[in-house]
Structures are given as structure tokens and as C-alpha cells.
Amino acid sequence: MAKLDNLLCVVTGGARGIGKAVCAAFIAEGARVVLTDIDEAEGRKAAAELDCEWHRLDVASEADWDALVQAFPAIDVLVNNAGITGFEDGPAPHDPENASLEEWHRVHAVNTDGCFLGCRYALRAMKERGEGSIINMSSRSGLVGIPGAAAYAASKAAIRNHTKSVALYAAQQGWRIRCNSVHPAAVLTPIWEPMLGEGPEREANMAALVADTPLKRFGTVEEVAALCTYLASPESAYMTGSELTLDGGLLAGSAASPG
Ligand SMILES: NC(=O)c1ccc[n+]([C@@H]2O[C@H](COP(=O)([O-])OP(=O)(O)OC[C@H]3O[C@@H](n4cnc5c(N)ncnc54)[C@H](O)[C@@H]3O)[C@@H](O)[C@H]2O)c1
Question: Would the pLDDT of 259 be above 90?
Fold first, then answer.
């Protein structure tokens, strides 16, 4: 038997990057996957390529979540993967002194509200059968401060903490609904494009991003997807409220050593 046989798995932000790789990995393990995204054109294209179902979903919209669970009432696995940095339209101040309230809210609307809504709708959809797995895509940025991307870091920290509330709440109800968070460091996907730039500075920017990473490279989308497959499958049945880092050793210590 494949690891995810007979499971209905919904992935948000599945049109590209990590979400698309999660969809592919779940399909390879026998899941019935619903690929969702706010980007209709790219989402449809990815779903056709992977040969899975497509449903348009803006994670920040309650109406969209209502429509999703009406279309797919028996969700077994939800991956709350969709997220934004706030730099999608180019550079803008995101430090604690200069970030605008509007920018702060824009990032939290997708990352924090999206995760909250996803968890709420998943609990409601899963509770009748009393089991399921919710996987929240946080970040290593949810575990440390990021002065130039404060809204992103705070939103990912909120996801980490909410994961634990959801896990404990579900356990209190006597449900076997698990909720865990995943914390990747830099994984090369289109999310980095606005920050890498074009031309000669691109290589230097890429090297700088992994310079402090002990394993000296980016993570891959397949590596994140493999962890999600584990968290989605019954193999991780005893794991809930956990946070799993996938960061090439970045958070294992500090480059600032004594002497
Ligand atoms: N790539 C990394 O280095 C990295 C590291 C840590 C955490 N993450 C997290 O992993 C997740 C995926 O990142 P990625 O690198 O694949 O990003 P990406 O930008 O390549 O893909 C994100 C996808 O989310 C979709 N999306 C954006 N807003 C949405 C919304 N409101 N509703 C639904 N979909 C929406 C986009 O259309 C896109 O398809 C994000 O939550 C990100 O914060 C990424």
C-alpha cells in the first residue's frame, strides 16, 4: 500500500514552488489531491500537469473556504502552504520602524488569517470522522527575528503557535486530528525572485542567502514535500503540536562563536 492511499488531501498555494511539489509527492503516494491556489491560470496548469483536481481558493477568504468544503466535505489532510513575503511587487520597507500598517496587514491576511481559516475549516471537515492531519507551513523565520521582513516573521511565528493550539484543542475533543508545523529555511522557489534580482548581483545574492547555512546550499522543494508526506501519513500518528525544522543546520547554533 502507498503511504497516502485513499486520503483526500487539499494543498493551498499549490500552483508552484513547495505547494506544487507537495501535490506531486502526495499523488505519488496514492492520495487524491485537490490543488488549490489564488492564481487560476497557473493553478489550472499545474493541476493538469500533475493530473489532479483543481479548485480556486484565496486562503484569506471565508467565502472561498466555504465553497471548498462544500465541494470536498471529507478532507483527510490539509496543507496550509500558501504564503507571501510582502515583496511580491518589489522592495518595500518591512522593518519594524518603517513598515506601513497596510503592508503589515496584507502579509498577515494571507499568512496568519489564511492559516487560521484553514485550520478552522479543516477541523470542522475532519471532526465527524474524528481524524486527519493539518500541516502548517511556517518557516525558520517563525523561530527567529528577521529585521527586514518583520511582518513575514511575525506571521510565521503566529502559525507556529496556532499549530500548537489547534493540536491541543483537537486532542482535548478526543479527536485523532493532528496539527504540526514545518519550518524550512531558504528553498529555491519563485518566492525569492523579487529579492534575487537579475544580472551579476543574482549569483552573489544567492550565495549570500546560504552563506551562514552549515550545509551551504538551498533546500529543495522535494525535501520539504517528503516531510509533509510523513506528516500526512499514518506513520506520524503520534506526532501532534510539533515543529519540524528543515534548514541545513541553520538553527543548530550560531556563527558567532567565542574566541
Ligand atoms: N521558499 C522558501 O525559501 C520558504 C522558506 C520557508 C517557508 N516557506 C513557505 O512555504 C510556502 C510556499 O512557499 P514557496 O516558496 O513555494 O512560494 P511561492 O511564491 O513559489 O508559491 C506560493 C504560492 O502561493 C500562492 N498564493 C499566494 N497568495 C495566496 C492566497 N491568498 N491564497 C492562495 N494562494 C496564494 C501563490 O499564487 C503561489 O502559487 C509559503 O508559506 C512560504 O512562506 C518558503
Answer: no
